[in-house]
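Worked problem 6 (solution included).
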Amino acid sequence: MASLTSQLPILLFLFVTAFTSADSQSFIGVNYGQVADNLPAPASTAKLLQSTTIKQVRLYGSDPDVIKALANTGIGIVIGIANGAIPALAADPNAAVQWINSNVVPFYPASNITLINVGNEVLFSNDQGLISQLLPAMRNVQSALAAASLGGKVRVSSVHAMTLLSQSDPPSSGRFNPAFVDVLKGLLAFQRDNASPFAVNPYPFFAYQSDPRPETLAFCLFQPNAGRVDPGSGIKYMNMFDAQVDALKSALNAIGFNDIAILVAETGWPYRGDSNEVGPSVENAKAYNGNLIQHLRSMVGTPLIPGKPVETYIFALYDENLKPGPTSERSFGLFKPDLSATYDAGLSKSSQTPSTPSGTPSPKPTPSPMPTNSSKWCVPKTGGVSDAQLQANLDYACGHGIDCSAIQPGGACFDPNTVASHAAYAMNLYYHTVGTDPMNCDFSQTATLTSTNPSYNSCVYPGGGSTSRLPYEAGKIHTMSNNGSSKVGNLLSIRTFLVYLFWFLIYSLSL
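Solution. The predicted structure is:
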């Protein structure tokens, strides 16, 4: 009794720490570019960010006004060193000390600076002189951090373009361009020694522009699709984001750096473009960013990085109206200069899920046969539907404005805790919420309408009719997630477990 009581402060600390970790979404960040003349004041931006679930902000420079405005907000800050500053930092360690003393030391720890990116897409520049100076500059910045007692607290990395890959399709064949391998091995060895991530800029938007088929759009937007099987690994990919990240993972594995974490420094979708640009629209931007956020929150990870989300920074917080190039380059902003949302991507603390898009960007699939009047429930087809496809259907339905609380822990339809059972409930609810048109019960031809009521026990499926159990409700189809449970309730399951643990400890102390 006395021993347990003496450990109560430690147990409570571990509980609070774990709960906070489960509740936060530190893996979702946003890029804060400043190539504009109409941006709101940094203080206003800080308040805006605090009204969202965004926990990380990436700056391309080290604007002191922005860094100070973010002080004591709990928001992690990534700052950048311009390519033009690399030669001086590489040549003189004192220049790196001066840079750290000017741009980090005065603000840390009130301003939670977590990472310094030395340069942006330096290898893409093909400037051999600059490329050769990148690693020495990173080393000097790391040494300057250590001298300021910030080693291990602030990481050092550099951001790379996807063009580093000479091959990326299928993901298992991902390989770096041989011309960059020696340079990359040096950079990655440094990053391994200092536990910093490999930062890259994958954009499914550009992949779609190079292959503008309807099925490619659905694949890029995380919408229901037939998926793409990687013949090298046998893995069926359901979205382009996972495929691009895993191509990078395969490339890292191929040169012996399978232990390096990947950080997505930029990804996004423009909501507007020129008449000759393929892909930009409000509907597509909302679908991509909203579904990406839901995918990250599901904690499923990617097939090669399972069970945890990849730290991801969405491009961008605001439009940058002074950027050159096509209209799309100036149209990635999640928010407008007046601080209103360009569209609902599900980032507001008061609205965790994006609403259903007003238009369907992907083409309508071939509908199922017209049902009889008694066919009132939308369910997965029996047999032949993979757990990856069912999870995609589940993510899609719950990410588009329907209430999936019934299949979360404690809900009437949470048990059996299988992705098949949860998908069945969500697909039927989606069908009855958006309209009972057979087209809304297609899900890439993996669903069907039935006149047999799938409701069971206290779990009621909207529709009506007699009650009976279907195989997927009885748990006979073992289509589980990678970690053995349906992913829609992962975060809530953690919280629920921790709450039970806390009360168990209190009860134990009272005995």
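Discussion: The two ends are 8 Å apart (CA to CA).
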